Structure formats: structure tokens, C-alpha cells
């Protein structure tokens, strides 16, 4: 799996109507606090693998051009991008080792922390990338400062964003609330469900980061390009219904083994995989036809050091599949 130090993106920024390339640099992900069970004795501290993966500081590079809008979600806008060239840390041309197109997920300006958090979950699920989750090629960012005239360049993904994100409750209800990106483990925690023994979350630069309109951050998560989302309820083949849903449950079981609670298991976050890209799952001895995406609101426990409640919660995720009452199809009109 390639991890690049820089990505040069064409057709992303316009200055005076003219496209100029932008270089985004590898950035650290944002570790979540560990989910724990208050009704059991606290397990031992988490292992060092909880830390964000070190960012590559070498000459590895990727150059891409945006080719079209794929879609938009709560925190980001996704695009297809053609791979123009790629080099590894030694300078070797590895373009032919990559797909011809990938997916770039651009964070909406106030929601960079969420995208950094999602990047961390892909790191934690590295052994399931390309099997049950999308492959990740890294998380990148750069500051987009104002020009001398006080104007920002036109950022194409931001200009094409149409949806206004839905905000979750938080006690800091001030006039700048629309500029803040609250995560599940930011909220008050009276039950003590989150812990951070090693301080990976506390010491992350994303812990206190806030969006600055005068100097916004262009952040992007590079992923493999997948297909359309899972069937709507009236489109599921009735003669294959249980087989399809059981296949999805097996895929969710893979991430549960790593202690990950997705927390947003909807049809829209389960994307199809082209037949030539399907990889054998070592746990289920099958090639999953779908992959999970969008982990920005996920939680993670330490599966080696946890109580029965955490394990039961992880296993219970499979019940979301095909369950209208658990919001599997979300708001269908979206």
C-alpha cells in the first residue's frame, strides 16, 4: 500500500479563472479516544499502535487531475481524479502500480478534524483495506492563504458544495458554532466512556485546531475509487436478499474484530467493488463485493483489553444491516 509525501492536484484551484496546481503535504491523522465500558474494571492502557502513523518525509509523490464530482456528504465533497504519475520514496516510477483513477475526499473548511479522524480509522484498519474497507493512500493538507488583494482563490470542491452540514448538540453554543467541528469524544462524557491513557488524542495538533476563514486549510483524503452505494430497499433482489445482507454482515464483522464501531452503517456508506478489485477475505474466505467508507463518527475500543459490553456492542453492529429502524437507508430522499 503506497503512502505519499505530497500530492499535486490539478483542476482544483482557479486564480482569476485560470487553473493552477496545488500541492498538499502528508499530514498526521487524528487518533480517537479509546471507547471503554464504565461498568467493568478499566482495562490496561492501549498499545502504541494507537498513535497516528508517522507522515512520510521523503520524495514520494503523486500527481492527479480532478475529472468529476462523485458526491457530497456531511463533512466533505468527493471527486474522481486521474492518476498522472506516481513515484515512491526512492524516486522509482510506480504509476503503473496504481489504478488509473482514485477518489479524493475534500473536507469542507470547518470539518478538517473529522476528515483527519477518518484517516486515522483507515490506518487502524490497514489490514482490511482493499478487503472490507476502501484503500487509503494518505491524508494531506495545505493552507490556502488570502492574496495581497485579500481574496481567496476559487477552490473548486468548496464552490461546488451544496449541502449545509447538520450540527450535533454541544454546550458551546456561541456565535461561531457553525465554524466548529465537534467529534463524538469532544462532547461531555459523564459516564467516562472515553479514555486517552497515552495522550495520543490530547497531544494531536488536531485537538485544538479550529477553522480560520482568513486562512482555511485544504485537506484531502486519497482513497481508491469504488462504485455505487448499496441497493435502496425497493431495489434489493428478493431472491438474493438474505445472501446479500449476510455478505454485508460478514464485512462488518471484519471491522468489529478490530474493535471499530462504525456508528453510521447506512447503505450510502457501503460501496460496490469492481470484480477485478475484489480481494479474498482471510476471515470469511470470500471476496467481498462491497466496502465500507466514512469513519469520521466511528469509535474504537482495544479488542485485546476490553470488557464484555464493548465486545457485545461491536458484534451488535451487524444488526444494522437492512434494518430501517436503525437508519440503514437513512433519509432515502437524500
UniProtKB/TrEMBL annotation:
Region (Disordered): 163-187
Origin: domain of life: Eukaryota
Matches recorded under InterPro entries: Kinase-like_dom_sf
Biased composition (Basic and acidic residues): 163-183
UniProt name for this protein: Uncharacterized protein
Amino acid at each position: 500500500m503506497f503512502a505519499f509525501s505530497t500530492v499535486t492536484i490539478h483542476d482544483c484551484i482557479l486564480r482569476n479563472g485560470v487553473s493552477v496546481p496545488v500541492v498538499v503535504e502528508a499530514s498526521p491523522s487524528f487518533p480517537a479516544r479509546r471507547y471503554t465500558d464504565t461498568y467493568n474494571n478499566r482495562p490496561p492502557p492501549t498499545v502504541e499502535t494507537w498513535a497516528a502513523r508517522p507522515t512520510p518525509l521523503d520524495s514520494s509523490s503523486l500527481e492527479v487531475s480532478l475529472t468529476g464530482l462523485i458526491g457530497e456528504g456531511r463533512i466533505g465533497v468527493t471527486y474522481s481524479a486521474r492518476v498522472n504519475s506516481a513515484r515512491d520514496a526512492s524516486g522509482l516510477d510506480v504509476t503503473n502500480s496504481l489504478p488509473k483513477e482514485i477518489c479524493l475526499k475534500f473536507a469542507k473548511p470547518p470539518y478538517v478534524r473529522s476528515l483527519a479522524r477518518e484517516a486515522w480509522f483507515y490506518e487502524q484498519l490497514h489490514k482490511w483495506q482493499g478487503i472490507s474497507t476502501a484503500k487509503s493512500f494518505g491524508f494531506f493538507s495545505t493552507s490556502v492563504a488570502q492574496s495581497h488583494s485579500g481574496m481567496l482563490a476559487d477552490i473548486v470542491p468548496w464552490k461546488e458544495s451544496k449541502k449545509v452540514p447538520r450540527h450535533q448538540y454541544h454546550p458551546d453554543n456561541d456565535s461561531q458554532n457553525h465554524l466548529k467541528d465537534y467529534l463524538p469524544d469532544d462532547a461531555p462524557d459523564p459516564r467516562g466512556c472515553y479514555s486517552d491513557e497515552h495522550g495520543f488524542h490530547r497531544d494531536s495538533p488536531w485537538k485544538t485546531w479550529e477553522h480560520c476563514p482568513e486562512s482555511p486549510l485544504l485537506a484531502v483524503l486519497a482513497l481508491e475509487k469504488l462504485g455505487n452505494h448499496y441497493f435502496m430497499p425497493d431495489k434489493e433482489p428478493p431472491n438474493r436478499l438474505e445472501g446479500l445482507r449476510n455478505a454485508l454482515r460478514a464485512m462488518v464483522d471484519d471491522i468489529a474484530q478490530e474493535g471499530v464501531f462504525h456508528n453510521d452503517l447506512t447503505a450510502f456508506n457501503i460501496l460496490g467493488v469492481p470484480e477485478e478489485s475484489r480481494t479474498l477475505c482471510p476471515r470469511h474466505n470470500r471476496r467481498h463485493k462491497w466496502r465500507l467508507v466514512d469513519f469520521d463518527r466511528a469509535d474504537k475500543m482495544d479488542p485485546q483489553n476490553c470488557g464484555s459490553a464493548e465486545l457485545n456492542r461491536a458484534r451488535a453492529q451487524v444488526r444494522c444491516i437492512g434494518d430501517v429502524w436503525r437508519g440503514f437507508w437513512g433519509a432515502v430522499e437524500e
